[in-house]
Amino acid sequence: MYDPTVARLTYRALLGRRRALILGALPLLLIAISVVVRGLAGADDQTASDLLGGLALATMVPIIGVIAGTGAIGPEIDDGSVVYLLAKPVKRPTIIFTKLIVAIAVTMVFSALPTLIAGFILNGNGQQIAVAYTVAALVASIAYAAMFLLLGTVSRHAVVFGLVYALVWEALFGSLVSGARTLSVQQWSLAVAHKVAGGDLVTSDVGLPTATVLLVVVTVLATWYAGQKLRTLTLAGEE
Amino acid sequence: MTTLSIDHVSRWFGNVVAVNDITMTIGPGVTGLLGPNGAGKSTLINMMGGFLAPSTGTVTLDGQPVWRNEAIYKHIGIVPEREAMYDFLTGREFVVANAELHGLGAKAAQRALATVEMEYAQDRKISTYSKGMRQRVKMASALVHDPSLLLLDEPFNGMDPRQRMQLMELLRRMGDEGRTVLFSSHILEEVEQLARHIEVVVAGRHAASGDFRKIRRLMTDRPHRYLVRSSDDRALAAALIADPSTSGIEVDHTEGALRIQAVDFGRFTALLPKVARDHGIRLLTVSPSDESLESVFSYLVAA
Question: Transmembrane ranges (chain A) (predicted)?
Answer without folding.
Answer: 20-41, 53-74, 95-122, 128-151, 158-180, 206-226
